[in-house]
Design a protein that fits this description.
Strand order of the largest sheet: 2-10-9-8-6-3-4
CATH superfamily of the largest domain: Type I PLP-dependent aspartate aminotransferase-like (Major domain)
Oligomer: single chain
Strand content: 15-25%
Number of helices: 14
CATH class of the largest domain: Alpha Beta
CATH architecture of the largest domain: 3-Layer(aba) Sandwich
CATH topology of the largest domain: Aspartate Aminotransferase, domain 2
Number of domains: 2
Length: about 350
């Protein structure tokens, strides 16, 4: 199901706050854009970006323990290339729920359901290990944190899985990892180990809120990066996007401010939901919150929409068994969050009897 096409008419309505897509919109972004000088912009767009490409890949490698990287036109572009170039002849498992583009661009994917741990927010790899031990798949896709629920796997567990099954190609979508506290403890990019059967995909769209820039990157072994590079445009990303990404990647203050605001807003919303008799949430580590209304007397998605909030229905997603459940993207912008909070507060007041 294409997330971009869903609710498109509603997104064009001025009185709606769109929380259906999982990327953030940060007030601070305008200051990053304004910091780009005219000389920098002209340099980035007036020549082929050979040097800025090399410099950006070097920056990624220096940031993440000397790992090997490629860049692409958004994480979706890289996911598509992995599926069509590297996994085309491999029987591939997909841990669900997950981002629809991961499995829609695979040939006959094997879905692996993973139990949702509501209390801790942790996901466990036991169901995945069973598939691998029985040699049911040759490759596997998982997301960390999960883009539907915000839950996460422990990095140590993934590292152990990759080590125990060296013949299985493990692709990990980490596009929401920037929104997780203690990222260096949870992201595989900060691991000192470089396993040839591990691919890690990241993006600037979700946390930094620049989906229009179309910039993603991935860490993988040379044999895989060479295959993708040979079958890609010479320059899949424009120079200005790379200029903007360098400034974002090098601005820890921007990152910390946005992360703090998201975490505080998530806590406030969780506290409000906890006061409800009929609402429940799944413990999340990222900028999304999966919320369920226990009573079937109302449709939670519809009530949120009536109160000006466009959420994302997840009860029909593959791997989600709970009904009347939506995903809400928690913004760092205070004004947007206040609108979400008041909408949830109103629903509780009107129907939580």
């Amino acid at each position: 199901m294409n997330y971009l096409d869903m609710y498109e008419k509603l997104r064009n309505t001025e009185d709606k706050v769109d929380c259906s897509l999982s990327y953030n919109t940060a007030d601070e972004l305008k200051y990053i854009v304004e910091s780009c000088t005219s000389e920098e912009i002209i340099s980035a767009i007036s020549k082929y970006p050979t040097k800025i490409y090399a410099d950006f890949i070097k920056l990624l490698s220096e940031t993440y323990n000397g790992k090997n990287f490629i860049i692409g036109s958004g994480s979706e572009d890289i996911i598509w290339k992995i599926n069509t170039l590297l996994l085309i002849n491999k029987k591939t498992g997909v841990v669900v729920p997950n981002f629809y583009r991961i499995f829609e661009t695979l040939h006959n994917p094997v879905f692996i359901s993973n139990p949702i741990e509501k209390e801790t927010g942790l996901l466990h790899l036991a169901p995945i290990r069973n598939f691998l031990e029985n040699k049911q798949v040759e490759a596997i896709w998982l997301s960390n944190p999960n883009p539907i629920t915000g839950q996460y796997f422990l990095r140590e567990e993934i590292e152990l899985l990759v080590k125990e099954f060296p013949s299985v190609l493990v692709a990990v979508d980490e596009v929401s990892m920037d929104a997780v506290s203690c990222e260096k403890e949870k992201s595989l990019l900060y691991s000192s180990e470089n396993r040839p059967n591990l691919i890690i995909v990241r993006s600037f769209s979700k946390f930094y809120g620049i989906p229009g820039a179309r910039l993603g990157y991935a860490c993988m072994a040379e044999q895989y990066s060479s295959c993708i590079t040979k079958n890609s445009p010479v320059f899949p990303v424009d120079g200005f996007s790379l200029l903007l990404a360098r400034k974002l990647l090098g601005n820890q203050l921007f990152h910390d401010r946005v992360l703090y605001k998201i975490a505080e807003h998530r806590k406030e919303l969780q506290k409000l939901i906890s006061s409800s008799k009929n609402m429940r949430y799944i413990e999340s580590s990222s900028n999304i919150l999966a919320v369920r209304y226990l009573s079937q007397n109302i449709n939670l998605w519809e009530k949120l929409e009536q109160n000006g909030i466009i959420s994302f229905r997840i009860d029909n997603e593959i791997g989600v068994s709970q009904q009347n459940m939506v995903r809400i993207t928690i913004p760092s912008e205070p004004a947007k969050f206040v609108t979400i909070y008041k909408a949830m507060e109103q629903i509780i007041a009107d129907y939580d009897t």
